[in-house]
Write a structure and sequence with these properties.
This protein has helices at about 45-65, 100-105, 135-140, 145-165, 215-220, 225-235, and strands at about 5-10, 15, 25-30, 30-35, 40, 70-75, 80, 85, 90-95, 110-120, 130, 170-185, 190-195, 205, 240-245, 250-255. By secondary structure, the chain is of the alpha+beta class.
């Protein structure tokens, strides 16, 4: 096999040069970090789960008109994606109080917010990804006013879609983080695309009945069972199938992310 050129390595993914111009290969690692990588661990199989879960969401979001960087899944750990210039902002959508907003505003975890709240954070690990205003974004030219409007509108549309999808499988979407990238298509038209990933690494997910946490907070808060929680999300989505035989139950991947009957 020829050695691929590595373009970038982050906390949870590696980007390699793609097979065609304007493409990249996104590799999902098992590395798990929290608190800006101050806490680290390798959780076997987490990358495989996040690859399949993110693929599932990207495909379905494309169907409702959200443009994404996703082209196709290559294998269990890799996706072929469109090369984009990442906007240096993390866009957070909050439906329920959890995480940093509780400390910042003195809210009780789990309390309902008056409405879904969109936050922008400057994407800079060494600064702790600080919360920023639209004034900061404009002043430092991180994004145009139109891009900010588009990111907000797309994030709210994503939120509506994901809330419905998760509610149907007994999961409450507490909050999530997304990133966007800029790209010029083959016709020379400018595009703003959903990039990065959507997975239990980037969402807070609670069981509707029990409030059991099914996301990376299990790692942040030393609750244990992180990979098992991700597996449960994948099973509920229909991406994984639990097969029970005379021996211990095993898990198998449902082809192409389709739900099995």
């Amino acid at each position: 096999m020829s050695r691929r050129k590595q373009i970038y390595e982050g906390k949870a993914k590696i980007l390699f040069e793609g097979p065609e111009p304007g493409t990249l290969v996104q590799y999902f690692k098992d590395d798990t970090t929290a608190f800006n990588a101050q806490k680290k661990e390798v959780l076997n199989g987490k990358g495989v789960l996040n690859n399949r879960i993110s693929e599932h969401f990207m495909i379905n979001l494309e169907k409702i008109g959200i443009p994404t960087h996703f082209i196709k899944r290559i294998n269990m750990r890799e996706q072929l994606i469109k090369k984009v210039e990442i906007v240096p902002l993390e866009v957070i959508c909050r439906n329920v109080a959890a995480g940093s907003i509780c400390k910042m505003l003195g809210l009780e975890e789990g309390s309902d917010l008056p409405r879904s709240i969109i936050e922008f954070c400057y994407k800079k690990d060494e600064l702790g990804d600080p919360l920023v205003s639209e004034e900061h974004i404009a002043a430092f030219n991180w994004a145009t006013a139109d891009e900010v409007d588009d990111m907000r509108a797309m994030t709210l549309r994503i939120n509506d879609f994901l809330c419905g999808m998760f509610a149907a499988i007994g999961i409450r979407l507490i909050d999530f983080k997304v990133e966007f990238g800029r790209r010029t298509d083959e016709n020379g038209d400018f595009q703003l695309l959903l990039a990065d990933e959507i997975s239990p690494d980037s969402c807070r997910l609670w069981d509707i009945e029990t409030n059991k946490k099914l996301d990376k907070d299990r790692f942040r808060q030393d609750l244990g069972g992180v990979t098992e929680a991700y597996e449960e999300v994948a099973i509920r989505l229909g991406i994984l199938k639990k097969e029970t035989t005379s021996s211990a139950p095993t898990l198998s991947i449902v082809p192409n992310g389709d739900k099995s009957s």
